[in-house]
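Sample intake — Putative alkaline shock family protein YloU
Collected from: Amycolatopsis umgeniensis
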Amino acid sequence: MTREQAPAGQLVETVISPPVIAAVAAHAAAKVPGVVRLEPGLRGLAGSVTRIARQRIKGLEPAPTEGVRAFLEQDPPGVRVEIDVALSGLDQAAATAQAVQRAVSRAVTEATGLIPTAVSVTILDIEIRGGLL
């Protein structure tokens, strides 16, 4: 949440909800080289179905957030992001996960003004293509 002064001296409050932060993070993570896809996992599937249903009832088109969860924290104020990914077997997993952390942190800060206190990346799958193993 940010507060800004309006021209007439009025205080304007901007509220950024966790699904918006998750959508920004999902978009940034998906663009990182070596990320094959975001993986929703069991917890993510349940939350995603509920969120999509609520948004469709309101007539909104939901932004893709599968595999990403964002949490607003009060003390200290900040945002925490969790991302579940499938990676390419062609890249080093740790380096790709760190690249995801940097990309998501930068994108969330640029889009919302909030600096993530943590960006956790869980690798759920590594795709090996071409029969190398």
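Post-analysis note: The chain has a mean pLDDT of 82.
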